[in-house]
Amino acid sequence: MKSNQRSEARPVALVTGGARRIGRAIALELAANGWDVALHYRHSAQQADATVEELRALGAQAFAFRAELGDAAELEGLLPAVVERHGRVDAVVNNASLFEHDDVASFTAEVALRHFNANVTPAIVLARALHQHVRSQGCGGCVVNLLDQKLWNSNPDHLSYTLSKAALEAASKLLAQALAPALRVCGVAPGVTLPSGPMSEQEFAQAHRMTPLERSSTPQDVASAVRFLLESPAMTGSTLLVDGGQHLSPQPRDVLFLVRQQK
Fold first, then answer.
1. How far apart are CA 226 and CA 15, in angstroms?
2. Is residue 74 assigned to a domain?
3. Which of 9, 119, 228, 235 could form a disulfide with 164 if both were Cys (CB 3.0 to 4.6 A apart)?
């Protein structure tokens, strides 16, 4: 009886970093296609509230949840808080990410650990918590981790960030093995999607065209790929590269530096 009631209700997805940018696009895509959304944020309270209103306007039950994912207690408490408010969780989209530039010359253990604790640890802890939850309910679930096409087209810029995303890609496969059959774990690897760091709008426009398709990913492209994986019960342990083919074109440096070299 419990499983029948669960299947008739709207599924619930927890989207980390869901208040703005790509996370917001993912939340909106899910809300528009039959999902309720638990929207995690850290500092963006006003943006989170505004996004929640947009989600509700699309017919979703949506609530915002503040948590510092680098704090062990707050991280461990996030999924139980979502379950308490929504009554269930069916999916976690690990979108929140730290992206700081370093290279071999500027690398420090502190910077590397900060990236690992932001980009890898939360994904593992939340996957474990979701696995425990869906098993207790006698149903299945899915985790989607946001990766980066850079892992298939390596360059030494953003060293600590890249290492953390490489660890997350490996963790996705390991989690897919460890948590099956109750939980599926997949990845989406975007390309140049939005301006970041010191990149200007003009530089972004140039970088966005540096792919075989002469366009890289948009937030909507990424959001559609995430929904596809969440709704594809035969997929686990795989990653979709959504990057306009950027991973097919070797690039010796990050696109920001390549664009600036063209000036």
1. 11
2. yes
3. 119
pLDDT single digits (tens) 77-131: 999 999 999 999 999 999 999 999 999 999 999 999 999 999 999 999 999 999 9
The tens digit of pLDDT for each residue in 48-77 reads 999 999 999 999 999 999 999 999 999 999
In the three-class reduction of DSSP (H, G, I as helix; E, B as strand; rest coil), residue 149 is classed as helix
List the CATH number of the domain containing 186.
3.40.50.720
What's the total number of domains in the chain?
1
Q: Is 95 helix (H, G, I), strand (E, B) or coil?
A: coil
Query: Given strand 12-15, what is the order of strands in its sheet?
Result: 62-66, 36-41, 12-15, 91-94, 141-146, 183-190, 239-242
**In 10 A of CB 180, how many CB atoms?**
14
Q: What residues are annotated to the active site?
A: 161
Nearest alpha-carbon partner for 92 in 60, 65, 130: 130
* 254 in any annotated domain: no
pLDDT exceeds 80 at position 198? no
pTM: 0.93
d(CA 121, CA 257): 30
| Cis peptide upstream of residue 195 (ω within 30 degrees of 0) | no
Domain encompassing residue 164: 2-194+218-248
Distance (Å, rounded) from C-alpha 34 to C-alpha 50?
Answer: 20
Whether 113 contacts 201, CB under 8 Å = no
Residues 188-198: b if buried by 16+ CB within 10 A, e if exposed = bbbbbbbbeee
Place of tokens 């650990």: 113
User: Helices in the chain by DSSP H: which ranges?
Assistant: 2-8, 21-31, 45-57, 72-86, 109-119, 121-137, 159-179, 201-208, 219-230, 255-261
More confident of the two residues 4 and 11: 11
Judge contact between 195 and 208, C-beta under 8 A: no
